[in-house]
Specification:
Structural class of chain B: alpha/beta
Structural class of chain A: alpha+beta
CATH superfamily of the domain at 26-114 in chain A: Ribonuclease P, Pop5 subunit
CATH superfamily of chain B: Metal-dependent hydrolases
Distance between the termini of chain A: 30 Å
Number of helices of chain A: 2
Chains: A alpha+beta, B alpha/beta, C alpha+beta
Mean pLDDT of chain B: 73
Largest interface: A-B, 37 and 38 residues
Radius of gyration of chain B: 19 Å
Strand order of the largest sheet of chain B: 1-2-3-4-5-6-7
Helix content of chain A: 10-25%
Mean pLDDT of chain A: 83
Number of strands of chain B: 7
Family (chain B): Belongs to the eukaryotic/archaeal RNase P protein component 3 family.
CATH topology of the domain at 26-114 in chain A: Alpha-Beta Plaits
CATH class of the domain at 26-114 in chain A: Alpha Beta
Largest sheet of chain B: 7 strands, parallel
Radius of gyration of chain A: 19 Å
Strand order of the largest sheet of chain A: 4-5-3-7-6
Number of domains of chain B: 1
CATH topology of chain B: TIM Barrel
Oligomer: heterotrimer
Organism (chain B): Geotrypetes seraphini (Gaboon caecilian)
GO molecular function (chain B): RNA binding
Number of strands of chain A: 7
GO cellular component, one term (chain B): nucleolar ribonuclease P complex
Helix content of chain B: 25-40%
Shape of chain A: elongated
Distance between the termini of chain B: 32 Å
Largest sheet of chain A: 5 strands, antiparallel
Strand content of chain B: 5-15%
CATH class of chain B: Alpha Beta
Low-confidence stretches of chain B: 29-42, 199-207
Number of helices of chain B: 12
Shape of chain B: globular
Protein name (chain B): Ribonuclease P protein subunit p30
CATH architecture of the domain at 26-114 in chain A: 2-Layer Sandwich
Chain lengths: 131, 297, 166
């Protein structure tokens, strides 16, 4: 994520060009939990607990201490939007990828979208049909 | 947009499950009907899938199976999401070799081996690993991820493998299943990456890419992960961001093309029965020739 | 040829009970560090460090340990060392903690540091000593280690017979 801003000073008409990388503090992830068999229900606290245990397994106590938030959680479709600080994105993502089971039910996390903007999760450009 | 491939999906006798894996790989359909607009419907899928046949010589002295014909298995291949093209299914053979005599299958003109699009080898000892890197006519070399690496990787054979365009394959499904295997997967992957990248790369005129691919070896749909997830996993294995993405996209394509050269005469001449060569195929053969020329020099 | 750079950590195991010093051995230390590493950094941290992780040398009397680790990941290992609270052997738990004295790139510099460190410790002992006999003993041992060159140090106190890595 590169942000380029050009500032013009009025007096002596010199330009200042600032290039910043990863200026955004948070990343947002849209994820969905899939189970092999139907009829497995879990509520928001359990959902967060599941992600925390995945983080603890892969990255230990240090990983479990990463600050992340479950912004929305839909119990019906088991989908959620997470907010994670930038440096924890790879850790969280890899922990989600390597999660294989929840209480002896086989499951998988599908990461649908990631973006530094929450608004970007409203639509998906990849969904557009190509003809 | 790059084309993603997963070059390792286990061949199962259960056709239905194989079909569902393919379906999942091509596109992720939501199983739940959505009332909210919260969920995006689909994700980018894999465009190429290789169905893997494993031949273990130690267990039984039997011939290599004939590859299943993809068109037989699936009357209509699922459309890849975002591509409006059907998924490409290729066949792949993995030889588990623990003795030098097992490699004869590759050297002799075995008609069965030629039927496969990709040939991979799983060396059990250091000598065989060396042979696989330097002399064997294979496209992929599997790295053991389920136990501690029995030997150290050495730089010279890996350099030769890079020059020949042979790729190393890492499999991530065992890491999903079990905690101890996850440790072995990561540590073996890290030790391979440390060898693969070295100072010698800077001497070359062009930057040497990491010749690693990451694939699934999934047996059920839930063991499959999205291409971007796998790329994020690659970061964990010590790849850079570009290399991690290449490990699921361009490197796989290169391995596939490397496999195609085996069907041609020295990678230069390609003959086909009757059937006029169309433009699309001509285009396809061009990179093959180029690759072969690089190989020969 | 690619040379893999390592880091050597020189640690001191501090235990309350002097009796349990006898029980400290290589395997015990290794498993304690491994457990702490898994607890602090999970499977990933353990996998990172296990590539060339080794407990190179253990001295049961002085509680000195040399730990080797790849340079890229030694911080993971180091940060998990404070979380070791006890050593477990044969079902018994000995409360202890690891005190890191020195970190260096070769085992040789670690050895040199350890010798210097032990000399300083001797001086401190001398300062604190009360009886005459004790004072004599310490003085003689200080003399023995200061007269010889540091390289071929064979002092029993410094306890550093470990050969440097080839």
């Amino acid at each position: 994520m590169i942000k380029i801003s050009e500032k013009k000073k009025h007096e002596d008409a010199t330009y200042e060009r600032l290039v910043q990388k990863n200026v955004f503090e948070y990343h947002y992830m849209k994820i969905r939990l899939e189970f092999q068999e139907k009829g497995v229900h879990l509520n928001a606290p359990h959902f967060k607990q599941l992600i925390l245990s995945a983080l603890r397994d892969l990255h230990g106590e240090v990983g479990a201490a990463l600050p992340f938030d479950v912004l929305t959680f839909d119990e019906k479709s088991l989908s959620a939007i997470l907010r994670i600080s930038n440096r924890g994105l790879v850790k969280l993502w890899s922990a989600l990828t390597l999660l294989g089971s929840y209480q002896n039910h086989k499951c998988a996390f599908r990461v649908l979208q990631t973006s530094p903007f929450l608004l970007a999760l409203a639509g998906n450009s990849r969904e557009l049909a190509l003809d | 947009m790059s084309v993603f491939s997963d070059l390792n999906v286990s061949c199962l006798s259960d056709v239905k499950r194989l079909q569902s894996i393919l379906e999942t790989a091509a596109h992720r359909k939501c199983s739940v009907r959505l009332s909210t607009r919260l969920l995006g419907k689909l994700l980018v899928g894999y465009s190429t899938i290789a169905i893997n046949h494993i031949a273990d010589f130690q267990e039984k002295k039997k011939e290599i199976d004939k590859p299943v014909c993809p068109s037989e298995l699936f009357p209509s291949l699922p459309i890849v999401q975002g591509k409006s093209k059907p998924i490409k299914v290729v066949t792949r053979l993995t030889l588990i070799v623990s003795d030098p005599s097992h490699c004869n299958v590759l050297r002799s003109t075995s008609p069965r081996t030629k039927l496969y699009d990709i040939v991979a080898v799983f060396p059990k000892t250091e000598k065989l690993f060396h042979a696989a890197c330097t002399s064997l006519d294979v496209d992929l070399i599997c790295i053991n991820v389920t136990e501690k690496q029995p030997f150290y990787f050495r730089r010279p054979p890996i350099n030769v493998a890079i020059e020949r365009g042979v790729f190393f394959e890492l499999v991530y499904t065992p890491a999903i299943k079990d905690s101890t295997m996850r440790r072995y997967t990561i540590s073996n992957a890290l030790s391979l990456m440390q060898i693969c990248k070295g100072k010698e790369c800077q001497l070359h005129a062009f930057p040497l890419f990491q010749n690693v691919i990451i694939s699934s070896s999934a047996e059920r749909p839930l063991e499959l992960r999205g291409p971007y997830d796998v790329a994020a996993l690659g970061l964990l294995f010590g790849l850079s961001e570009a290399d991690a993405k290449a490990a699921v996209s361009s490197n796989c394509r290169a391995a596939l093309l490397h496999g195609e050269t085996r069907k041609t005469a020295f990678g230069i001449v390609y003959t086909m029965k009757k059937h006029q060569v169309t433009e699309a195929e001509e285009k396809e053969t061009v990179p093959t020739c180029k690759k072969a020329k690089i190989e020969e020099t | 040829m690619v040379r893999f750079k390592s880091r050597y950590l020189l640690c001191e195991i501090v235990v309350d009970d002097p009796l349990c010093r006898q029980n400290i051995n290589q395997g015990l230390v290794q498993s304690a560090i491994k457990d702490a590493l898994i607890r602090a950094h999970g499977d990933f941290g353990f996998a990172c460090c296990s590539v060339s992780f080794a407990v190179k040398y253990v001295n049961a009397y002085t509680g000195i340990v040399f730990i080797r680790c790849r340079k890229a990941f030694y911080q993971l290992l180091w940060s998990s060392l404070p979380f070791i609270t006890c050593l477990e052997s044969w079902g018994q738990r000995y409360p202890c903690f690891f005190n890191t004295l020195h970190v260096s790139g070769t085992i040789r510099t670690c050895q040199k540091y350890l010798i210097q460190y032990n000399q300083k410790q001797l001086l401190r002992l001398l300062y604190k000593s009360t009886s005459d006999v004790e004072r004599k003993q310490i003085e003689s041992s200080i003399r023995s280690c200061s007269l010889e060159a540091v390289e071929d140090e064979e002092d029993s106190q410094s306890s550093c017979e470990d050969e440097p890595e080839p």
